[in-house]
Design a protein that fits this description.
By secondary structure, the protein is an alpha/beta fold. It has 13 helices and nine strands. It has two domains: 179 residues, Rossmann fold (3-Layer(aba) Sandwich), CATH 3.40.50.1010; 82 residues. Helix 12 packs across helix 13. The radius of gyration is 32 Å and the shape is elongated. It holds the Pfam family NYN.
């Protein structure tokens, strides 16, 4: 009987014990240590404040604020106190995101060949401000700004660098940027400037964001100043001659071509003798700046100015 029981026991499968495996006591100790580390990490995360950033489409701000306060979207007709406006945006964000810290303000603008203007350089030197430049084509249209905004928004949200983004803009092309940031858990708040009439922000953009806020005339007025325009009628000195204005047009054309290159010239030639509206406006404003006089009431002088501009360009062919 005893022999039979012993034989049966010998036939039962035996559990192999790995000498290197941790004992139940060791496993319990490790779990306790892991839980303690997790609790410490969660406590640190709870102490870490959330972070926000402000993304400003400068083209939208100039157009919307200029139209609202100065009655024009033409940036050459008014001055924008960018530093004061940025400070106002920061103060507003501090109020809205009371328990959050500012990462920085991103200021998106266009420039010829992405070279900072003196105004953009001054903005870039402000504390907590990052200037990001797209390009400007021959018609003064911004190119690449929306893609820069999307890249920054998406990257910061993906790396959990921000929890909230205040986006100052209105272009429908910004919708993918909003979607990308939201996909990584960030909340996007659309800030806009009161429209003089109708709307200045695309409806699909308004639908996509987490909240909206509009700044009115009283908010914008301190930061927009219309530039004075002088006229010949108010001047005691006689106006310049047609030859003087024609020569000035040639000088401006030489500068224009040097900044933009031969490709821009090729774009203008099919329209001769007419200049595209933005180029013609640039020419007129620059001539008035150099003359310290207005040419708005002198059609003959304006034609001389354009003649000199074209003659200089054609001499380069």
């Amino acid at each position: 009987m005893v022999a039979g029981v012993r034989a049966a026991a010998d036939n039962e499968p035996r559990m192999n014990h790995d000498p290197g495996a941790p004992s139940p006591t060791d496993l319990g100790t490790r779990l306790e240590r892991t839980n303690e580390l997790l609790q410490r990490m969660l406590a640190e995360v709870a102490k870490t404040p959330s972070t926000h950033a402000i993304f400003v489409d400068a083209g939208y701000v100039h157009a919307a604020a200029g139209l609202l306060v100065a009655g024009t979207e033409d940036r050459r007709s008014f001055d924008l106190d960018a530093e004061g406006l940025i400070d106002a945006f920061i103060d507003k964000a501090r109020t809205i995101f009371a328990d959050s810290r500012l990462l920085r303000v991103y200021w998106y603008d266009g420039a010829r060949r992405r070279i900072h203007t003196s105004e953009q350089q001054a903005i870039a030197e402000l504390p907590d401000v990052k200037v990001r430049l797209g390009n400007l084509n021959a018609n003064n249209q911004q190119k690449g700004v929306d893609s820069l905004i999307r890249s920054d928004l998406e990257s910061l949200a993906r790396h959990r660098a921000i929890s909230d983004a205040a986006l100052v803009g209105g272009d429908e092309d910004l919708v993918p940027a909003v979607e990308a940031a939201q996909g990584y858990g960030a909340r996007v708040h659309l800030w806009g400037i009161e429209a003089a009439e109708g709307r200045n922000q695309a409806e699909p953009l308004l639908w996509e964001v987490d909240s909206t806020r509009t700044f009115d005339l009283d908010f914008c007025r301190p930061y927009v100043t219309r530039r004075p325009v002088t006229t010949f009628e108010s001047e005691s000195e006689p106006p310049p001659s047609r030859d003087e204005v024609r020569l000035l047009g040639a000088r401006i054309a030489a500068t224009w071509l040097g900044e933009r290159g031969p490709d821009s010239l090729a774009e203008l030639l099919p329209g001769h003798p007419y200049l595209p509206g933005p180029v013609d406006q640039d020419l007129l404003v620059e001539a008035e700046r150099r003359l310290s006089r207005s040419l708005r009431g002198h059609a003959v002088l304006r034609r001389s100015l354009r003649d000199g501009f074209w003659q200089q360009l054609q001499s380069r062919l």
